[in-house]
Specification:
single chain; alpha/beta; two-stranded antiparallel ribbon; 30 helices; globular
Amino acid sequence: MSSIVPHYRTITELLQSRSFSIDEYQREYKWESRNIEELLSDLLGKFETSYQPGDSPKAASDYADYFLGSIIVTQRGSKNYLVDGQQRVTSLTLLLIHLYRETKAQDLPAASALEPLIFSDNFGEPSFNLDIAERVPVIRALFNGEPYNVDGKEESIRTIVARYQDIENFELTRILGEGLATFVYWLIRKVGLIEIATETDAHAYSIFETMNDRGKPLSPVDMLKAYLLAPIDSDNGRSQANRDWKSTVLELTSWAPDPDQERDSACIKAWLRAQYADSIRERRKGAADKDWELIGSTFHRWARDNEKRIGAGGDQQNLFIMTEEFPFFARAYRQILEAGRTYTPGLKSVYYNAHNDFTWQSTVLLAPLTVEDDSDTVRRKLEATAAYLDIWLMRRVVNYIRVGYSYAAYPMWLLCKDIRRKSLDDLIDVLIGKLNSDDTTFESSASRGRGGLYEFGLNQFSRRYIYHLLARVTAEVEVGAGKGDQFDHYVDRNQKNPFDIEHIWPDKYTRYRDQFDSRQDFSLWRDDVAALLLLPADVNRSLQDEPFEVKAADYAKQNFYAASLTDAAYRRQPQFMQYRTRENLQFEPYRTFGKDAQEGRGKLLLALVGKIWSPDRLEDLRR
């Protein structure tokens, strides 16, 4: 294989004036929020080991390097095809686009260094370096800062938009501050990969198979297993431990419908953090990694260095970890994943948090568990903790408080410590106590000067959470009216006719200008959460910019939350009327929809939200 050439490439060397494509049969772009957030956290952590406040971009030339692994490329004509590495190259491209837009907005010279890593100039037209035909339109839209509608688009397109939003929500610019330009130059000049280039597809796929089979180096999971196996003396014990470990790993990595060779590692990180992490890196530049970060990067070494804490080091102790403790937490981890994918009675809060892409959920939910817990206790603890997270998260997002990976790491570490190995009753007491003493509620966040639900409107940050909130409110009212719980149906974007956010006010400022001080004032009222509904996409499109008086007849035929704006919901609907009276909810029909109607609707919405996200949900989980 003389035509196989490995090269170390910095990101600049890899991407500048080059284009990459993939074969049609390759899998979709599949990275999840946790993958993006771990990448950004790792990059930021490595950068901060070298960066000192005030460092110029030039100083980055002396910073430590960072290695991102290897990719396999084969060349056909003038185009490079990624045989292995499209997940990383796509994610890097999204990060570079984000950094380009941020540096350009600040008029930093670093923007010009980023440009040729994203696109090449082709007679005045940008030719994007990630040259995959069906993905070029979304890459172009993100690069230009334009909205992109993913409805009906393939999985990779939807995932690209979602992961770009994760990058935006991470808020690197805010974290880096004046160090943004220095970070950019460090990233593109000191972060690199091994590019294994071949001249034939046969060679490329031969290398790919070898690297992922016979020649695959020991993973951290393998090294943790070897460390735990070593002190087990008896042949039978070693055989049982090895067999149980391998079986547990296989069940994790092959879990249908989405096998993932990294899931065993993700599970172990969640288990060790939840049960044993006693420290976390101080929130200052240059601080050293502690338990929380070390488990996330080198958990096999951390376990060896902390064997007393995890109860390891001897024959019986290690046998217990490998045959009892790890399989127990792996089963719970898979139960969390399954409940996050399938709307499951008794574990619905897990699904809610998964829909909100709260990536710390799996870690936190393992914290209160003990190996002695029976299946019902496990289920109740999982739901109680997930319900707390659901309330904690939604209280924050309606106050425009970030809850992404980096923002939530510290509070989630504290939470894990506070609920670790608690009994069910003690767990519920702790969680309710935290909610009752929380400064942030749906009405306000006093310490941050936020106005809660009354100031919550549709924008780039809030859109996904408003969609979630409307789906929850719609499902709640439907159940109250005697219908089934269809939350999972409302949020299913893969169905033929998915639900969309509907504005009650048509986008016709001139029609209503006598009620508002300005167009901006009109837009604030129109985008307010109390003036929004959830309707099927085809209904939403058909209504377009009709006034409320015209749309009301269509609202009457939809879900009860929408229909309750009209007289129809109050005629021959005994269960809805009983629900309205029983819960003292101020549903009212309207002939016209103006400011007074919207204010009334806002009070109703606050009452519904208080019921849906009530801490009483946790009390109901006691035996």
